[in-house]
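I'd like us to work through together how a protein chain folds, taking it slowly. To get us started, please write out a protein record for me. Label the sequence line and the structure token line clearly, so we can match residues to local backbone shapes. Once you have written the record down, we can walk along the chain together.
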Amino acid sequence: MTPGHVRFTGVVSDAGSADGPVWVDVPETCADAVTDRLDPWLLWLLPHAFATGQDVVLDGKADAELLRNAHELMEIWCRWRPDRRPIRVWAEPAPEASGSRAAGRTGLFFTGGVDSFFTLFHHDEMSRVHPEWRQRPVDDLVYVDGFDIPLSATEARTAKHETLGRIAADTGKTLLVLATNLRETGVKQPWGPVMHGPALGGVGMLLGNRWETSLLSAWFCHEDTDPWGSTGITDPLLST
């Protein structure tokens, strides 16, 4: 387990080859903000279940709006994969949350690339220029080990953490580094074309008691509707 982190693990039972644990290491300072709902596991498992035609059965509660969004997401995927049909997601709908989450904190998935920097500066500028939007500036820069850089690449991960730490300090943000084996498990699907949007969306759901808003940097235009893991029509469905 990553030092200074708490590990959250879900056990996947699959009729195929995806049996085993999926774990996420969350900084100890954020452990209390991890949701007790199964929203993140729904997003992490859905691409594999859709591709293999298996229903998802969650042993717990999930947000009712996310359950509806998951079906709409699969309807879009069916346009891209006419040979597939939406699978059934079985879960107990969670009661609606009362009150605001974490005083409206905002997290931004941040790799240090041009898309991440644009979202950071643009979002904060729009928050300043348009106070009537009641949009909070970015609070947290979020990076997930095991997504862009493999868990085994220790030196590369350390160098990335140092770079992101300097950026967070210079911009007055909090850096949160998580780690997960999701991309190495049997529930993986092709990363770019399928998985990276739901993977990040699931992390946003995991810390749902910390953030009211989590931001994914767009790398497409509004008119782009080609099949991909993160698009302007699918990303908004990765939410409650």
